Automatic annotation (TrEMBL), chain A:
InterPro entries: AP_beta, AP_complex_bsu_1_2_4, ARM-like, ARM-type_fold, Armadillo, B-adaptin_app_sub_C, Clathrin/coatomer_adapt-like_N, Clathrin_a/b/g-adaptin_app_Ig
Keywords: Acetylation, Membrane, Protein transport, Transport
Annotated SUPFAM superfamilies: ARM repeat (SSF48371), Clathrin adaptor appendage domain (SSF49348), Subdomain of clathrin and coatomer appendage domain (SSF55711)
Protein's name according to its UniProt entry: AP complex subunit beta
GO terms assigned for molecular function: clathrin binding
Residue ranges annotated for the Beta-adaptin appendage C-terminal subdomain domain, each copy included: 860-970
Pfam families given in the database record: Adaptin_N (PF01602), Alpha_adaptinC2 (PF02883), B2-adapt-app_C (PF09066)
Organism for this UniProt entry: Gymnodraco acuticeps
Family note: Belongs to the adaptor complexes large subunit family.
Subcellular location: Endomembrane system
Protein origin, superkingdom: Eukaryota
From TrEMBL, chain B:
Family under the similarity heading: Belongs to the adaptor complexes medium subunit family.
Lineage: Eukaryota, Metazoa, Chordata, Craniata, Vertebrata
A Pfam family the protein falls into: Clat_adaptor_s
Protein name: AP-3 complex subunit mu-2
MHD domain residues: 176-417
Cellular component, GO, one term: clathrin adaptor complex
PROSITE patterns in the record: CLAT_ADAPTOR_M_1, CLAT_ADAPTOR_M_2, MHD
Keyword Transport listed: yes
Any one Gene Ontology BP term: intracellular protein transport
Alphabetical list of InterPro entries matching this protein: Adaptor_comp_med_subunit, AP2_Mu_C_sf, AP_mu_sigma_su, Clathrin_mu, Clathrin_mu_CS, Longin-like_dom_sf, MHD
SUPFAM superfamilies xref list: Second domain of Mu2 adaptin subunit (ap50) of ap2 adaptor, SNARE-like
Topological type in the membrane: Peripheral membrane protein
Length: 971, 418
């Protein structure tokens, strides 16, 4: 304010009355009265000056609302500037003076009829900004006219006005049919109108995720692509973002869209470029990789991304966050562009850190020498945070590129020689990780590390050093002295260091029992008797008992061989990555979180997924969207706020046999389960990864949760599940009814787990409607009421089609039948097994969770009978690697009976062929999400074993379908 | 879309706010101020800041923070690009984009902002169109307006806004028809201790100033268009023609605009115009350090290197620098530790040098970091990539315009590590 005042004085001194600052000259209380008089002046010029003064006061946040009637009186004027100024004022204050604002309505309505399109547009635009119900009512008619105005300038302004109105009163917009008019504008002849209509519809759609407002079909896409070339840069962004939501029918369509979008990569506006990149990255998935065009496209993507990095730092930052995603998804695009990510010393820190991250992701054997030289350079910079991260990066390189490990270690040793305190500490932390990745290779450096023991003052570095001393106690002559020196200040250390010290000394004792008995007793008593920390006490007691009961076992446990840590645990989980690729250029891509997790305005955003060339459906992951890790990794519930069910399911402690593997978001539980399966008593050691693992998570559970699991794991993991499923169906005898097989009800939620509520149930498909039939049994002592049900996202988007209809409370020992109709339009997430469904049921007592599996035949549509010709063509079209074969044993039906039985479950026989006494049935079925499954069932007379071959573009469903065949045929 | 805009000066005052939807309380800026406090340098404030109900996206230009408030999912680049456009427009209108200029013209600023966005959607951002809607303030016009009572708001719908060439206004008339093109290239490079190039790239732009009557249709061709494999065009350039023939064909906006920007990254094409011989060292246990710097021309294709400015952030422990320049003047700021040497022109016969000693603060240990040397320079009449315009032709109008082309090379982020 001081500066400002000076400014004003200056202006006065020089008599400069020409600038707007003169409007600020009066600050005294009488100002309002003065202005009032001026506003009511007869002279036009004086009026205008007065309104300007009012606006100037408004801009700096002064309250001039008291002048409302006087300003509105100036509205009826031929002077456009005055009109605009009054409108500006109205927009700001109408809300606080709704009754007065009504005075303005007549002028607005009149202006909407003006001959000058500029005035028509201005009026409708301003009216939309006035968030007062009474005004909004009057807006509808003028708006309707303006949407059909002959002048495109007015139409494009009106399009935006619909979005404004929707924000104020959504119901009104729908009732008045403005949404349809807006949709029509997508076909307008003027590209600017098209762009604004798309923008308005996109904004409206954001608050109605399922409204299907932007119904994209090849015709509209064509119109959008035409408008894309001709509209303004901002319009191009809206159109590109809208295009990204479209799923092309086939690879040819996606190629043609890509071809028409590619020129946008040369646009000067970086937001246009990034939106174009998004469209290309998404549609590229559909293109066959052997296509020439695919390679061309990959090459075209690199230069614009590199160019973004020469822009202003803020743009660079957003670009880098997105490049980080692109590099994880398609490293080949930028693999030769390492150098553009080299850090300039005057880059802002947020740019530096991002560049560093991408450098590590791009590091490979080919460029590691350059990268290391750079990192070493960075480690001598001034900025402490950056230096630390650079040192860590060297460690990550060592773990990622095995051939470079030796170089990295020597670089780290060089850095330790600089004796810069934080560099040394950081280096020790990463060397510990290198030891875990390459055991027994670089231990020669331990001596150097030990020299710096005293200078370590950060808990993480101290803990790392203690771990190294404990782990290699047998090679360090004075290990006991070193550890003893730490023990002196035991109580002043942080928990991390205390835990580490405890473990290290126990290790030392097991390695050199004779000399260290005293030390171990000392640390055990410190941990168990003098500490308030339950973790530390518990660990102390465990060691103590272990050592006192069975030292041999203790040795096996404590000194067990540790699993190697895997590289790149910081990679984004593949399903999340896919979703983020669909959101390139948005806030989600900057934060690397799914959009539903953080943006307030977008409740229930639909999850977007990449669709790849081989997949015909959207919901099921196609075979080549990812590595083996994708299909084998347990399903990951991405923790997202607002998804209560998802969050709470993580707490569900049902054993994995009945629920499938627990969500990855519950690492603690994962850890336990894995340990049991792995057979190694690693849980004690597992703790170590907690303080130490840091960013390079150490335990196998981490690996399984986020990356590729060890090959043996999934098998042993899945076996009990499918076994369980079979058992479940074996239970039922004689459950067969007219044609359709209905599995008998099984107990889904035992009373034990649900405070007395027992739920058993089954799934039925009756004339095209899927129903979940449940028996709810109250085994508690009190009445249960207020039932509600909710599903977690699942593979086929099953969701309750209505609320759970339990109208009367259930009294103790009463049971009640309930049928819940299901729809298949809910949110989709791949589950393991595919037909797993996680359910939450709420009653007046609590919320309970269970999971059940539905027979996949529930999802077979009644129109699943394919034309013969189509069948043949499709069968040939699906690549052979998508075919899977199964045996069905002990089935005593002939082929016709089998065919009839299957038909009851919407599995249709299209043709039958008999070759050498073997009946071959060709069958088809169609899933609710549009996936076709084709089958060939071979039945040999007299042989109870059937062979079935399944072909599907989404081969993941084959296993489920096969199980379904088995259950249907055997019941 | 964009909800609100706050302008904040370097002392942390919000001096202007504009809302395009409902009013967002200025207290939302507290989150920005928090982030600003955490950042050590003004440039280090993160561009995207989440708050419980909004997102703040900011750019820092001319020591003013332009903070946009958004509520729903909006592409951040869209917002940043828009903010840049706001800055450019202010600069275009007021000559400078400073707090004083904005306050002096607050009503015009308000009118402009209202015209640029509607409900958060960009409305008119092309300077050609804005100038038709709202005339830039000039002393003369203000005088005339004051006397005659006319306004500086256009009464008619800007003609260009809905035509196929929305960037150009119609009815343009000049007595002298002229077209000037400036090819300006900046070299970004990192040179390591030993003088070898770690990375080098060229950011080039062609800025144009076209003042021609009517609707001229121009074509610009290059001697060596293959240099340009990574380009961003002004919307006026016909992309298909470029793809097919490597010729720039366009109907230009009226006045100043950036025709294209390009990027040359393959290193063999990037010539490094100067070399630096340096010896900046400190001895263990001594409070003195040596500073020795010599500059010389390298690949300049016979042109002279001018306006050379060397700057370097010396280590924190340095108290004073006692140096002797062979030419030009140097300054050392003992607070920021920034050493600047204004060299001027490099004479290849007598290479400029800066030699002397630095003294460390009492008790300071030998600095760990090695200072980086930043170099600025200019070379006239040459584009370092070798890019050359072949010819400029005009179609669609009868007159003969005056044409001019200028080349210039500058150092962008040109850094030498020591």
């Amino acid at each position: 304010m001081q500066e400002w005042a000076n400014q004003l004085c200056e202006n006065r001194q020089f008599g400069s009355k020409m600038t707007d600052s003169k409007y600020f000259t009066t600050t005294k209380k009488g100002e309002i009265f003065e202005l009032k008089a001026e506003l009511n002046s007869d002279k036009k010029e004086k009026k205008k000056e007065a309104v300007k003064k009012v606006i100037a006061s408004m801009t700096v946040g002064k309250d001039v609302s008291a002048l409302f009637p006087d300003v509105v009186n100036c509205m009826q004027t031929d002077n456009l500037e005055l009109k605009k100024l009054v409108y500006l004022y109205l927009m700001n204050y109408a809300k606080s003076q709704p009754d007065m604002a009504i005075m303005a309505v007549n002028t607005f309505v009149k202006d909407c009829e003006d001959l000058n399109p500029l005035i028509r547009a201005l009026a409708v635009r301003t009216m939309g900004c006035i968030r007062v119900d009474k005004i909004t009512e009057y807006l509808c008619e003028p708006l309707r006219k303006c949407l059909k105005d002959e002048d495109p300038y007015v139409r494009k302004t009106a399009a935006v006005c619909v979005a404004k109105l929707h924000d104020i009163n959504a119901q009104l917009v729908e009732d008045q049919g403005f949404l349809d008019t807006l949709k029509d504008l997508i076909s307008d002849s003027n590209p600017m109108v098209v762009a604004n209509a798309v923008a308005a519809l996109s904004e409206i759609a954001e608050s109605h995720p399922n409204s299907n407002l932007l119904d994209l079909n090849p015709q509209t896409i064509n119109k959008l692509l035409t408008a894309l070339n001709e509209c303004t840069e901002w319009g191009q962004i809206f159109i590109l973002d809208c295009l990204a939501n479209y799923s092309p029918r086939d690879d040819r369509e996606s190629q043609s869209i890509c071809e028409r979008v590619t020129p946008r990569l040369s646009h000067a506006n970086s937001a246009v470029v990034l939106s174009a990149v998004k469209v290309l990255m998404k549609f590229m998935e559909m293109l066959p990789k052997d296509l020439d065009y695919y390679g061309t496209l990959l090459k075209k993507l690199a230069p614009p991304l590199v160019t973004l990095l020469s822009a202003e730092p803020e743009l660079q930052y957003v670009a880098l966050r997105n490049i980080n995603l692109i590099v994880q998804r398609r490293p080949e695009i930028l693999k030769h562009e390492m150098k553009v990510f080299f850090v300039k010393y005057n880059d802002p820190i947020y740019v530096k850190l991002e560049k560093l991250d991408i450098m590590i992701r791009l590091a490979s054997q080919a460029n590691i020498a350059q990268v290391l030289a750079e990192l070493k350079e960075y480690a001598t910079e001034v900025d402490v945070d950056f230096v630390r991260k650079a040192v860590r990066a060297i460690g990550r390189c060592a773990i990622k590129v095995e051939q470079s490990a030796e170089r990295c270690v020597s670089t780290l040793l060089d850095l330790i020689q600089t004796k810069v305190n934080y560099v040394v500490q950081e280096a020790i932390v990463v060397i510990k990780d290198i030891f875990r990745k390459y055991p027994n290779k670089y231990e020669s450096v331990i001596a150097t590390l030990c020299e710096h023991l005293e200078s370590l003052d950060e808990p993480e570095a101290r803990a790392a050093m203690i771990w190294i001393v404990g782990e290699y106690a047998e090679r360090i002559d004075n290990a006991d002295e070193l550890l003893e020196s730490f023990l002196e200040g035991f109580h002043d250390e942080s928990t991390q260091v205390q835990l580490q010290l405890l473990t290290a000394i126990v290790k030392l004792f097991l390695k050199k029992p004779t000399e260290t008995q005293e030390l171990v007793q000392q640390v055990l008593s410190l941990a168990t008797q003098d500490s308030d920390n339950p973790d530390l006490r518990d660990r102390g007691y465990i060691y103590w008992r272990l050592l006192s009961t069975d030292p041999v076992a203790a040795k096996e446990v404590v000194l067990a061989e540790k699993p190697l840590i895997s590289e790149e645990t910081d990679l984004i989980e593949p399903t999340l990555l896919e979703e983020l690729i669909c959101h390139i250029g948005t806030l989600a891509s900057v934060y690397h979180k799914p959009p539903s997790a953080f943006v307030e305005g977008s409740r229930g955003v639909q999850h977007k997924r990449l669709t790849s060339s081989a997949g015909s459906g959207e919901s099921v992951e196609s075979p080549d969207t990812g590595s083996a890790a994708v299909s084998e990794a347990p399903p990951a519930v991405i923790p997202s706020q607002g998804d209560l069910l998802g969050d709470l399911l993580n707490l569900d402690l049902t054993p994995p046999t009945s629920t499938g593997p627990p969500p990855a978001a519950a690492p603690g539980m994962q850890l336990g389960a894995m340990d049991l399966l792995g057979g190694g008593l690693d849980s004690l050691m597992g703790d170590e990864s907690e303080p130490l693992g840091g960013d390079i998570g150490g335990s196998p559970a981490m690996g399984a949760g986020f990356g590729a699991p060890p090959a043996a794991m999934p098998a042993s993991f899945n076996a009990p599940i499918s076994g369980g499923l079979d058992d479940l169906f074996d239970l039922g005898g004689g459950g067969m009814t007219m044609g359709t097989y209905i599995p008998p009800k099984t107990v889904w939620l035992p009373a034990m787990k649900a405070k007395g509520l027992e739920i058993s149930g089954t799934f039925v498909r009756r004339s095209g409607v899927i129903q979940m039939e449940m028996t709810l049994n109250n085994k508690a002592m009190s009445v249960m009421s207020d039932f509600a049900i909710q599903f977690n996202r699942n593979s086929f988007g099953l969701a309750p089609a209505g609320p759970l209809q339990i109208l009367t409370p259930i009294s103790p020992n009463q049971s009640i039948e309930a049928a819940l109709p299901l729809s298949t339009v809910g949110p989709v997430m791949k589950m393991e097994p595919l037909n797993n469904l996680q359910v939450a049921v709420k009653n007046n007592i609590d919320v309970f969770y269970f999971s059940c599996q539905y027979p996949i035949s529930m999802l077979f549509l009644e129109d699943g009978k394919m034309e013969r010709q189509v069948f043949l063509a499709t069968w040939k079209d699906i690549p052979n690697e998508n075919e899977s074969q199964f045996q069905i044993k002990d089935c005593h039906l002939n082929s016709d009976a089998a065919s009839n039985k299957l038909q009851g479950s919407n599995i249709f026989t299209i043709a039958k062929r008999t070759v050498e006494g073997q009946d071959m049935l060709y069958q088809s079925m169609k899933l609710t999400n549009g996936i076709w499954v084709l089958a060939e069932l071979r039945v040999q007379a007299g042989n109870p074993n059937y062979t079935i071959s399944l072909k599907c573009r989404a081969p993941e469903v084959s296993q489920c379908v096969f199980q379904n065949y088995e259950t249907v045929l055997k019941n | 879309m964009i909800h609100s805009l706050f302008l904040i000066n370097s002392s942390g005052d919000i001096f202007l706010e504009k809302h395009w939807k409902s009013v967002v309380s200025r207290s939302v800026c507290d989150y920005f101020f928090e982030a600003q406090e955490r950042a050590t340098e003004p440039e280090n404030v993160p561009p995207v800041i989440p708050t419980p109900h909004h997102y703040l996206i900011s750019v820092l230009r001319h020591r003013i923070y332009f903070v946009a408030v958004i509520q729903s999912e909006v592409p951040p680049l869209f917002v940043i690009e828009f903010l840049h456009r706001v800055v450019d427009t202010f600069q275009d209108y007021f000559g400078v984009c400073t707090e004083a200029a904005i306050k002096d013209n607050v009503v015009v600023v308000y009118e402009l902002l209202e015209e640029m966005l509607d409900n958060g959607f960009p409305l008119a951002t092309e300077s050609n169109i804005l100038k038709e809607l709202i005339k830039p303030p000039t002393i003369l016009r203000t005088m005339v307006n004051t006397i005659t009572g006319s306004t500086n708001v256009g009464e008619q719908l800007p003609t260009g806004q809905l035509s196929v060439v929305p960037w150009r206004r119609t009815g343009v008339k000049y007595t002298n028809n002229e077209a000037y093109f400036d090819v300006v290239e900046e070299i970004d490079a990192i040179i390591d201790k030993s003088g070898s190039t770690i990375t080098a790239e060229i950011q080039g732009v062609i800025d144009a100033c076209v003042k021609m009557t009517g609707m001229p249709d121009l074509t610009l061709s290059f001697m060596n268009p293959r240099l340009l494999d990574d380009v961003s065009f002004h919307p006026c350039v016909r992309f298909k023609r470029w793809e097919a023939e490597r010729i720039l064909s366009f109907i230009p906006p009226d006045g100043n605009f950036r025709l294209l920007s390009y990027h040359v990254s393959s290193q063999n094409l990037v010539a490094i115009p100067v070399y630096v011989k340096h010896n900046i060292s400190f001895r263990e246990g001594s409070s003195q350090g040596r500073f020795d710097l010599t500059l010389g021309p390298k690949q300049t294709m016979g042109k002279s290197v001018e306006a050379v400015l060397v700057s370097s952030q010396l280590p924190r422990g340095v108290l004073t620098a006692n140096l002797n320049p062979s030419q030009g003047t140097y300054t050392f700021d003992p607070v920021t530790k920034m050493l600047t040497w204004d060299v001027g022109k490099i004479n290849p016969q007598k290479l400029p040098s800066l030699k002397g000693t630095m003294s460390l603060q009492a008790g300071a240990s030998k600095p760990d970091e090695n200072p980086t040397i930043n170099i600025q320079l200019k070379i006239q009449q040459m584009a370092i990539s070798g890019l050359k315009v072949n010819r400029l032709d005009m179609y669609g109008e009868k007159y003969k315009p005056f044409k001019g082309i200028k080349y210039m090379t500058k150092a962008g982020k040109f850094q030498v590590r020591t």
